[in-house]
Amino acid sequence: MRIKRLGCYAGVAAATSLSGFLLHVLDVDVFSRWLAGEAAAMSYSWSITLLAAATSLESGVALVCVYRLLYDKLPAGGVWRRGLLVAALGLATQGRLLRSLVMNLAVGGWHAETLLAAGRPWLVWLAMGLTLAAGYERLIARRASL
C-alpha cells in the first residue's frame, strides 16, 4: 500500500515536471527563435536536453511536497482554483507574478514582445500548477478518501 502511494506521488511529480519542461523547451527552441525571426531548432544536444529533463524532476518533487503540506489549507474550489493558486505562488516566489512584468514594461515599454516575454513563464507555471492539482486530486486525494 505504501509503495503504491509513493508511486502516485512520484507520478504526479513527474507529470508536473514534464508539463513545465515541455513548455520551457518549446519556449526556448521554438517561440524565442520565432520572435527573433530564426528557424526553430534544438538549442542543445539530446544528452543535455535529457539531463535537463531528468533534473527538472527536482521542481516537481518540491511542488508535490509543498502542495501536500498546504493541501488542507488551500481553499476548496476544485482543480482550477487550486492549480491557479499554486501557479501564482510559484510565480511570486520567483518575482515573476508582477515584478518581472512591471520591470519589463518600465524598461521596454508596452510592446507586444515585452508582454509575450513576460507571459511565457506564466504559461509554464500555469501548466505545472494545473497538472499538479489535477494529478494530486485524481491519484492521491481521491484514493485517500476511499
Describe the protein's architecture and organization.
The chain has 146 residues and is mainly α. The protein has 6 helices and no strands. Helix 1 packs antiparallel against helix 6 (112-144) and helix 4 (78-93) packs across helix 6. The chain is flat, with a radius of gyration of 17 Å.
Keywords:
mainly alpha; 146 residues; flat
Roughly how much helix do the residues carry, as a percent range?
over 70%
Shape: flat
Largest sheet properties: none
Low-confidence stretches: none
Beta content comes to under 5%
- N-to-C order of helices and strands: HHHHHH
Radius of gyration: 17 Å
From the helix content, strand content and strand pairing, which structural class follows?
A: mainly alpha
**Count of helical segments?**
6
- State the distance separating the first and last CA atoms: 13 Å
Extended strand count? 0
Compute the average pLDDT.
Answer: 88
Write the layout of secondary structure elements.
Elements: H1 2-35, H2 46-55, H3 57-70, H4 78-93, H5 99-108, H6 112-144
Helix pairs in contact: 1-3, 1-6, 3-6, 4-6, 5-6
